[in-house]
Structure formats: C-alpha cells, structure tokens
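Sanity check

After download, print the first record. It should look like this:
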Amino acid sequence: MRACRPASPLAGPAQLRWDLADEPAAQGAMFETVRREVGRGEFRGMEFLHVEAKRLLNEVRGASDLPFRWTVNPYRGCSHACSYCLAGDTPILLADGTTKPIADLRAGDQVYGTERRGMYRRYVPTEVLDHWETEKEAWRVTLADGTELVASGDHRFLTERGWKHVAAATVGQRPHLTTNNSLLGVGAFTAAPKHDEDYQRGYLCGMVRGDGTLGAYTYEGRRPSPETVYRFRLALIDDEPLDRVTSYLGDHDVAVQRFTFSAATDVRKEVRAIRAQSRAAFERVSSLVAWAAEPRESWDRGFLAGIFDAEGSSNGVVRIANTDDVVIRETVRALERFGFAVVVESQSERPAMRYVRILGGFRERLRFFHLVDPCITRKRTFDDLAVKGDADLRVVAVERLGFTIPMYDITTGTGDFVANGVISHNCFARPTHTYLGLDAGSDFDQRVVVKVNAVERLKAELHPGRWRGEAVAMGTNTDPYQRCEGKYRLTRGLIQVLIDAGNPFSILTKSTLILRDLDLLTVAARRGLVRVSLSIATVDEDVWRATEPGTPPPARRLRAVEQLRAAGIPCGVLIAPILPGLSDGDDQLAAIGRAAVEAGAISIGHVVLHLRHPEVREVYLSRLRETHPEVADATDRRYLGKAAPKADRERIASVLGDAIRAAGGELGAMEPPVPAALVELRRPVRSPKAAADPTSQLALPL
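Expected structure tokens:
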C-alpha cells in the first residue's frame, strides 16, 4: 500500500483515505469526520483523533503466512510510552491502611485512590493494574510540613489548582509546581514500628489487659488440699489479633490452643479464642504483660497497638475505651509521648467507662495507625472519607538533583494513588500512520487514532446473516491494551461483543493491563473462544529499558502469563521482535526461552525484526543511531532486504528451540481458536469487503 497524503494532514475536519497499491481506484473513505481531543492529565503532550470507523473487521488478503485472516484494531498509533515515576522507597497507602514502598507493589495489590463524589474527592480502595520500573532524572519536592518527595520532572501531583507536573516542560508549556501551590493530602507518612521484643511485650500488655482473661483460681474440691486452676484466655471476633498474639507468645515459648468461644447467630458474629491453662504458661504470660518500669518508645508503640486492637474504635476519630484507671493513665501517657493531643471523656449512662479520644482529624488518625501498627484491618480503613485536612502542604522547594535513579510507577483503577501522604497521578504501529497522512515517528507515539464506534461497529458486523464466524485477531497492528485503553475501554467492549456472539478471537499484547479483563477472558476460555499471547522480546532489562521503556518490565509480563494460565486462559509467549545486535545473543535467547517455559506458556513463538516498510526502517535506524550507533550501522548493512539474513534467522530458531526443549517446552506459534462446531453451524456467506490490514509485527515503541 502507499499513503495518499493530503497537503495539510488533518487540518481541520478531514477524511482519512488510503489507496490499494494493486487496485486502480482509491478504496474510499476509511473514517467519517475526525474530531480532535488534546490529551490532558497523564496523556498531556498527546492528541487523540476520534473517528467513526466505517468497518472494523479487516481482512488479511493475499498469500499471507499469518495464522489468521481477520483482524480488529480499535486504535492506530501507540500511547505505551510513559513518563511519570517515583523513587522506589516512596511509601504508598494500601487499602488496609498500611503502607508499602512503590518498588515492592505488584499488580493485584489493593491501594487507596480517590474519586470525586459530589463536592469532594474521596478516598476509595482501588486495584494496582500494572507496575513497572525505569530510570529517570531525580527531582525533589519539599513541602512546608517537611514532607519530601523524589520523582521525575514529568510526575504529577494534585494541587489546589489541579494536576501539576513536578517541573516545567523542556519544550513548550505545561502546568508545573511552584511555591504558590499546595498539594492535597495529609503529608508525610510516619514510619511503621519494628516488631522487636519491646514492641511485642507492649502489644501483649495492651491486648491482654484490654480484652483478655488471666488469673489463678483456687477451688475447694474433693481432694485433701485446695486445687488451683490457671487460666489465660483471649476471645475476639477478629482473627488478626489472635494470630499476632499467638505468634508473639510462641516467640516466648507459650503454646496456646485455638477454639470457638461462641457460635454465630442471626444477630452476633462468631467469637474465636485462644487459651493456655498450665501454671508455666500462666506465669510466663503474667511476666510478658507486666507494666514496664521505664517503658521504651517501642514498648509504648506496641502497647497502644494492643489496647487499640482490644478496646479501640475509629469511626471518624480514634477512641480507646476502658474502666481501669491504670490502663487509661498509661494510654494517655503513651499518646502524649508521641505528641498526640487527647481528651478523656465519659458518658452518663456508663460513668465507669472512660474514652481516650485523639484530636486532630484524619491526619492524626492516620499518623496513629502508622506509628503503632494495630492489626485489625476493619478498624484502620477509611473508605469514602473526604480528601481534606489541615496539614501545611505548601510547596517550598522544587530541586533538580542532577542524577538518574531507578524509579517506579503503577496504574490503578482510579487513575491515582496516595504517595507519602499526597495524591499522585499514575501513568496509564507505525506504518499504518503513514496511510492516514501522519508520520511513522513522533505522530505514531503522540497522535493516536481512536475508533470511538468500534464496539457498536463490531456488533453490527458480526451479525449471523453477514458473518461466518471466523477467528478474529486483536493486537496484530497496535496494542489493544496500550495506555489509552484505560481511558476509552474499547478493547473490553470488543471482547464482550465477541463473547456474546460466540466468536473465537485471539489477543496479542505487551501490557499487563489485560489482567483487568480477567473476568471476561475466563468466560471466553471456558467456551473455547480465546487464545492470548504476551509479547516479551527479552528478559535483558538493559535492552528492555533501551527499547521498550513505556511497557511493563519483562518480569511483570511473565507473571501475567502465570496469572492468565492459573485462571484457565490459554496463554502463550511471542518472543518479538528479536533485535539483531541487541537481544539476539545466545545467552539472551536461551534466557527468554527458559523464562517463557517456566511461566507456563502453552506456546512459544518468535519473530526476528524485519524492516518491511521504508518508514519503519527509517524510524528504527534513526533512533538506534542515537543510542547504539554501531548496532545501527551493522543492521543497515545486514538488512539488504526486508528481513534478517537467513543464516541469522536459522541460528536464532536453533538456539531458542534448544533452550525451550531443554526446559520442557516446544517452540511453535499458537493456533487461533476455531471451534469446529461453531464454524459448521454458521451459514457460509460472502465476506464483507474490507481493507487489507498491513499486519507485520507488533509495533515497536522505539
């Protein structure tokens, strides 16, 4: 095919056309009028071209050796490249109220994000959909309360004036942080305590004195002398503190028994308990829960965690209730030690019961949870709480640190997350662009054509009277799970349409965002309708960073293969594209082959880089010359035609095949899902006329 370029591409409302090289007349308009949408937020710097596609099913015509005839591509162009990252030790707020460094997060983890509901943005649990690592130049943002955040200049935080990047753009303009801004949130998180021996003793003291039974009881029985019975018992409706106490007592050689204290009823939950009834256990527990003569800081943290798990509540404010004067006094002393402002209250209907209440709102409530680390999850969550507070989060400095460090980012269901106490934004094929009057370089990365009517169009084209149920391939041209899928959700809609029609389909992607649609894919797999392949070119992280920095790391994609297989979804690995001089070393090939087998891939295919189109060759070699000039020159010399030399292709296949077979697998591409019964039941009809899909290889985000 050849591009039929207008004099001024997409200048105002336009129609995009292409010509078939082997036909005398133009094919006609592919799309209706184009509507532009300038990328905002995480997509700033991009442009989305909204089009109404006249057809969605594209036929691969001619003598193609590809294992499919029909393709569907909801997007043209690729928004995979991401630019937002945080330092690996940045603590992220989890949905159970605890924190974890962003480097340690994994897809599937539950964190807090935010959603606007009514007048306020509110904290809501959300799932981590993706996680990756890259290297970026470091900047430090310092806030008035002492909070420090290390991020890339491209990262964005939520201010009182909306989302703003850390630093100004090197070219053009974009909103960025200044000392006139304040961030939204609660400010820096407090570090969690170490669960050392002092902490354990403090926790046991608070928990057992707050909610346990510990005593020695003497009875006059039939024996000549009185009988003494020793008893330790702790009964709760939550398993978490029972597990913690059991563990701590075990560390001090006290074994306990687990039992049901009272069964559940229509109005009451089941109460479970632990107990020990020997004299040795009684004496050991009594020693462990004794008041500390000079309590260390760690002991006080443990005590506050224990008494809160035993007698605390957190319905908007933190309260700890007890009738014991000593317990109330020690609770107040420990809280004041850590700078909490407290009041002690009582209620007229229960004058003996007193309540220690922490002042200061959500910021102090969260500081308490992180400082002492109670373990009952239901008491330390705050779903739907409004994002507001009195922390002084004015920006006082934004500094360029002058060095590059490993940084991490995540994609969440809400599009944001809470990083060290402030609201942080997450980060969500070239030849075809030339057919649209766009270039194969920057336009491919920054101008994405979005077929906004893709779902409705596919539903119409799959009508039984016009369609014979052949397998449909997704991801053959541009990735259906590129970042903007999080914005438009077209791929999920297409999957639902294919399932409803009982039509077999396959998906090829580089993105772990596919795990978002695990529910639909599981249904499709049970009906024998789907095959999935993850494109993983290499496990060499240096090569990955140099060639695919906007995609999830290879390890994350391999883990996605494992998760898809565990869900019963047929999933393979396509090792593509193998790049001469970069990822085609014998050791590199053997490593990715073994990794694919170990991940459970049911098929392992491979594609060596081919430069079929002049535009791709130009873009690939020009970018390669910027980073690996010697490899670019060698590639230019070796690729006299469109493909790598035959000897190179044979060596790669041999090395891969040997490594895969040694690991217990077999080299070979996955067959598309085509249930025989499905095809036979459908009346063969004349296929709709469709555009030839310029499918070659999964587009390179280079």
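If your output differs, re-run the checksum step. Summary of this record's structure: Residues 25 and 466 are 25 Å apart (CA to CA).
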